Amino acid sequence: MLRYSLRRTLHSLIVLVGVLVLVFLVVDRIGDPARLMLPADAPIQVYLDLRAKLGLDEPFFDRFWSTVSGWFVGDFGDSLWQGVPALGLALSRVPVTLSLTFASLVVAIPLALLLGTRSAIKPGSLADRFLTTVSLTAVSIADFWLGLMLILIFSVQFAILPTSGFGGLEYLILPAATLTLRPIGRIAQIVRSALVEEMQKPYIRTLRAKGLTEGQIVRKHALKNSAIPIVTVAGDEIATFLNGAVVIETIFAWPGIGTLFIGAIERRDLPMIEACVFVVAIMVIAVNLLVDLTYARLDPRAKIYD
C-alpha cells in the first residue's frame, strides 16, 4: 500500500510539473502583464519601469529557470495583481471552495444512491422510467443556465435568497443547489446500471432463496459489490467540483479559488495563475489517490499494490 501510494504520488507530481510548465509557456506567450496593468495612455517610460520591476525584461530562460526553481520550494512569487504571495492567497481561498464542494456532495451522493437504488430494484417499472427521466434531465441541464434560473426565481422573483456573496447558509443554498443537480443525475445513472447488472448474478438468487428481502440484498450485498464504478464516478464528480466550479463561483460571486483563478487570467497574473493551478492540481491528485486506495478496501482482488 505504501509503495503504491508513493509511486502514484511521484507520477502525479511529474504530471503537475508538466502542467505548470505548460501554463508558464502559454501565459508568457499570449500577453504582456505590464500593458494590462497600466492605462492605455501610460507613458512608455512608466511601462518600461514596470516591466523592469516585474522582471519581464529579463531573458526568457532566466525567467523560466527562476520560476521553476521557485516551485520546488513553494515560492510562486508575488501576485502581480494584488501584490501578496500568490500561493498564500490561493491557499486562503481553498476552505471557501471546499465548503461549497462539501455542501453539494452531502446532498448529491445520498440522493443519487437513493434514486439509483430505487430504479434498480424494479427495472422497467413506471418508477424506474420516471426516475431515469429525472436523472437524465439533471445530467443534461447546463450548470450556468440553472444558476441563472435559480437567481431569477428565488432572488429576483421571490426575493427570498441573495443573488450572490459569501456568508451564512442563505448564501450557500443557490450555488450548492446548482452544483448538486448534475452529479445527482450522473451518479444515479451509474448506481442503477451497476445494481441492475449485480442483481442478475447467481448469488443474488441464492440470497433470495434464503428469504432475504430485496432491500436487505441491495443494502448488505449488491450495493457493496457494485461499489467500484460508483466510487469512480463519485471521485470524478469531486474532482469536477474542485476544478470545474469556476463558472458557478463567478455567477454567484463566491470568493473561492475559481473566482480568483478567473481574475488572475483576466489580468495575465502569471504567478497567481500558476499558484491556482498548483493548489487545484494537488487537491485533484489527493482525490484520485483516495479513490484508488478505496478500491482496495472495497475489492481486495484489485491488485493495485504490484
Task: Give an overview of the whole structure.
Belongs to the binding-protein-dependent transport system permease family. GO terms for molecular function: dipeptide transmembrane transporter activity. Residues 94-291 form the ABC transmembrane type-1 domain. The protein has helices spanning 2-30, 33-37, 44-54, 60-71, 86-121, 126-140, 143-157, 169-198, 202-209, 214-225, 227-244, 246-251, 257-266, 270-298. It has two domains: 15-71, no CATH class; 86-298, MetI-like fold, CATH 1.10.3720. The radius of gyration is 24 Å and the shape is elongated. With 306 residues, the protein is an all-alpha fold. Helix 5 (86-121) packs antiparallel against helix 11 (227-244), helix 8 crosses helix 10 and helix 8 (169-198) packs antiparallel against helix 11 (227-244). It contains 14 helices and no strands. The model has no long low-confidence stretch (mean pLDDT 83). The chain is 77% helix and 0% strand.
What are its keywords?
306 residues, 2 domains, 14 helices, elongated, cell membrane
Structure, briefly:
With 306 residues, this protein is mostly helical.
